[in-house]
Specification:
This protein is α+β, with helices and mostly antiparallel strands and about 80 residues long. The chain contains 3 helices and 4 strands. The protein has one domain (about 5-80). It binds zinc ion. Zinc ion binds near residues 53, 54 and 67.
Length: about 80
């Protein structure tokens, strides 16, 4: 399954928790499919996640990769901005 679809699934299950929501800094906790928890943050327009997928993929170019947890958060943010 594509990361965007997995993210949508996590979002629909209500796995996204907003910890801090500011214009220049946002922090979220996302519960993964096996109940593990990840911290996602957006600072100065750069999205970060502490999962292995993100750490591995964004090694070359930090902030260039969107993992399923960040997708889940993006759906949540779109809902909040609506
Ligand atoms: Zn992640």
């Amino acid at each position: 399954m594509a990361r965007i679809d997995e993210g949508l699934k996590l979002y629909k299950k209500g796995n996204v928790k907003v910890e801090l929501f500011d214009d220049d800094l946002m922090i979220f906790t996302v519960k993964g499919s096996k109940d593990e928890k990840y911290q996602i943050s957006m600072n100065e327009n750069m999205w970060l996640c502490d999962c292995d997928d993100y750490q591995f993929r964004s090694e070359r170019e930090p902030g260039s990769f969107i993992c399923k947890h960040i997708w889940a958060v993006l759906f949540e943010v779109m809902e909040m901005k609506n």
